[in-house]
Amino acid sequence: MIVMVEEIQDMPVNPVEHDKYIPEEFNAVGRRGIRRLDGYEKASGKAVYTRDVQLPGMVYARMLMSPYAHARIKSMDTGKAEAMPGFRYVLKYDDPEVKKWKALHAEESDVFDLLPDTAYFEGQPLGAVVVAETEEMATEALKLIAVEWEERPFVLDQEEALKPGAPLARPDLNPDDNRHGLYDLWYFNQHYGPNPWPIVFKEGDVEEGFKEADKVIEFKARKQYHTWAGVEPISCVARWLEDNLEIWVHHQCPYTSKEELAEKLGIPMGKIKMYCLYQGAMFGGWTWQSWGYAPHILTALVARRVERPVKLVLNARESHFYGGDIDHAVHHLKVGAKNDGTITAVQIKGVFANAPPGWIPYNGIVHFHENTRVHNLFLENRGAFVNVGPTAAYRCEQTPNALCITLVFNYVADALGLDPTDVALKNDGSHGKDMTYLSEFKRDHGFPIRDSLKECIEAGKKAMDWEQKWHKPGTKRLPNGKYHGMAFCWSHEWTDTSGVGVAGVRIERDGSVAVLSLHSDIGVSAVTAYAQIVADELGVRYEDITFRPFYDVTFFLAVPGASKNLTANGYVVRKAAKKAKRRLLELATKTGEYATHIYKPLFEGMKWDDLDVRDNMVYVKADPSRKVPVKEVVEVGRYGFGATHGPVYGWAWHTQGIYLGEAALRHPLCRQAHFMEVEVDPETGEVEITKVVNVNDVGKAINPEACEGQQYGGTYMGAGRNKFEEVIWDPQTGVKLNADLLNYKVPTILDCGPIETILVETGMGWGPYGSVGIAEDVATMVDGLMGPAVYNAIGKRIDDYPITPDKVLQALGKGSE
Asked: Do both 465 and 610 map to the same domain?
């Protein structure tokens, strides 16, 4: 049983303050076997996604895509397209209304005209939007557009791009060379201040740290460009009713889209009604590309022009292969360590391809900064423009940080002949402080004083049989002739909960409850977890909670991303539920401003806080036998004989963020540990993942099965990026050669090996009830784990991901040079 640490009447307002109020017992929260609110719809195939929307009289829009890596439209003839049966309209790059538009909130490497005349990567949308009666007709009309192109030189590799004389990838942004991060763009200035190049982070003195070290190690690691490869391609539907816009978007940030639509179209936000239906595997992707809002704007614009509902659709190639992950980077690392495993200094110098400056000030170093005692840190990141798609958070933005911490700890352990789990425990801490400091911090802030990393490691080692199976690199050959390898990685659980969420909770007259807010549902069972919180806070059955997060009801929850769904939005719905509950109890006792109209209270002579709610019954705390159903309490909220009855209603907002203001003083206290076992075939170079163990301290598991689903899904994603996933370009043309789901290799669950999931609950998270997010963690950490596992198997380093059979054979001296 978890007990109350300190009783408070309401949730903390200060985002730095820890949520100390923990109920003595839970009903819905933490319960296994709970039915997902979206479960039946999705399992039955009845769930409606943006791509499924059909409206009467709807026509279809398609966009022109660049066939070149770098080219400008010299001229365009749409005559044949306009003569085609079924053609309705074409919007061109030289239209006066769109020539002036650029994407709002753009960062430097992602600045494109809304409908540009110049392409900076193959597959970039530009030039024209064609509208026709059917999707097929619109596609055929695009083929009939005659374009005269001016081809320009291009460069694909970020290190090559920074060499003198390299072709200019973005001369519109930097006419001198391919360095990016040079200009004081609005977004960067607003969030980070003047933008230096290279971007440097310093803490302590790395040179002194190297002098203290008994061993100094240097190495290089590379992650190849991989992409979204999602499920539901991008689409958008728009319809005008006079000067009011209705729009259905496939996006994780619907409120930001509403803002951009209002600005670009010149209408008040209040005249825009937005729908955000089920989202098929968003994983970031378009959400973090500034041009990702352009389909919404263009769809609304052509719908206004043709005076009919319009659906703009992109196919899988255009959608899933538009851009790539921010971890398309090269890292040069230098590490100092003492013989006992104490890391004295970490230096990282990275070169990122097309990474917006706002994403890379800490990329590579942040996990050392936030959850180790390593005091001497130095990061130098350079950005390079190249002619590939823009990069951002495709399936998480923490990957460079996770890769660097994984490799550093494994390199140090190997160089010193130590178990990597011991090296992790030796260096655990936060912001350069050790575990003694963290224990004092936990005590001062009301947290349990538990060693999260130790608990995670012990659970994982037991599940993996680590003590028996782990061995020195290259020393174990199996009876089947394959090499055996083991690896371990660790980090903290991160909760970058920047953003604001707003929600309402409405108790209906029949006692059922509706949660009100628009939220992008990307499949992680978030709304189920929110409903569990509301159920326990109100004291009603989970089965009586409804949450349909698809409609603009003036409330918007914080967007999915960076593991912040639960830790930010959980607070929002909890606060709203607490307010609704108080108003319910005020009605029952005729106390408070919302109950002055009650003729006779159901609990006469009592105050609202003399009561509580459990199992849909309002009862007297001092005498639980005195109780009435919630329904009867709501029924007294009538406003006169025969008048409309009003529901009980509460709403709340919440914002917090570990990187915002005072909140940066918070320390991440929950840890995660992951283990992988592999077999490497020396004849074929094939790497088989034979087991993965995920251990995550989630603080408090609001929905344990959803957490385990993240562990399974994250392992699947990590396996794909370890083994297969990379976009390949023709070096002569700059054209993507594998931009489809046949040739862009993604794994099946059989490629992941057996997966064992373990949840640790220490109550040391900053979210509701001491919870912490898990959404990005596993996918991010596991995707760098195969490198150390393969090294442990064959005794040869491969730090160029993905680790494909040809790279293994070359490391073994069997491949071509």
From this structure: no
